[in-house]
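dumping this here before i forget
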Amino acid sequence: MEKIKKNNEKTNLLRKLYIFTILFEKLDSLKPYQLSFKDIELLNHNWISNKDLILNYPSFYFWLCKNYDFFETIKKEIIINSNKNIIPFWIICLKIITSINCITNNEIDKRYQQDIICFIKNEIKNKQSNLNSNWINLVMTNVNEKIKVQIFGILYYFIIEISKDSKIIRNKLNEEKYNIIKDIFKKIYSSVFLNQLSDILKKDINSEEPIIKFIVNPNDYIYQQFTVLLDNLKNKIISHQSFQDLKEMMNNYGKQFNSIVSNIENSINEEISKKNEQKKIELQKKIRENFENENKILVENIDNYIFIEYITHIFNINNIKII
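structure:
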């Protein structure tokens, strides 16, 4: 039993040494932190509503919100045991743990996680002088009641569900669909950092505001964005110099083709005209021949008639009685 106890002590010691090894490696690779007693003072008060903490240490604030119950449990003991004239080692550890890289998200689908988290980190860096706690509602579901904004929480659940969409369409369109959804997610996060999201969500459901259109009907919004993409692609192709060169070349070919067609038509018309002329000549000849034949017959009949009349007159045949 005693041997097992000693082995456990050795194991715990090795584990602690390993943790310290990782910690020291991190310290070597990071820039020196500017520590102050203010770091402790911020935690002595109602830190969750402390604007200085949100503005100066947004990633630290994120970590505290994410681990609220755990931190509240150990906070008193840590602070009570801290020497007011010494910055304790746990502050250094906490600083490392709560760097900007501690901002993560495992609730949104992994296809969007990296892009959204990178976007959030950049927004924090760019708008640090105007930060508040609202953005926390769009990065975690378990938000403390003191900073919870219900409408933002509902929107965050909506973002999570949309991100898990698994409907597959054509490969290229599928990629564009993800990009469209990713872009509208970024619009939502950008608006919360600009403190505009509350006003946007108050707009009428028939508003042309992209975020509202996406929330009301994601399918229609994505389809409209597809249409815009196709129009842009069409305009890009049409305005490209290669297309203009092709168009000019086709126009030249068109003119040549029209000339060829015109020549063919003229040749056909000439041929038809020749055939019609030949038919006309043949018809006239045939009519002439028929006329001459008919005239000849008529002349013969007239001659016969005259001869008969002459004989009849001479011999007065009409007066001869046969019976």
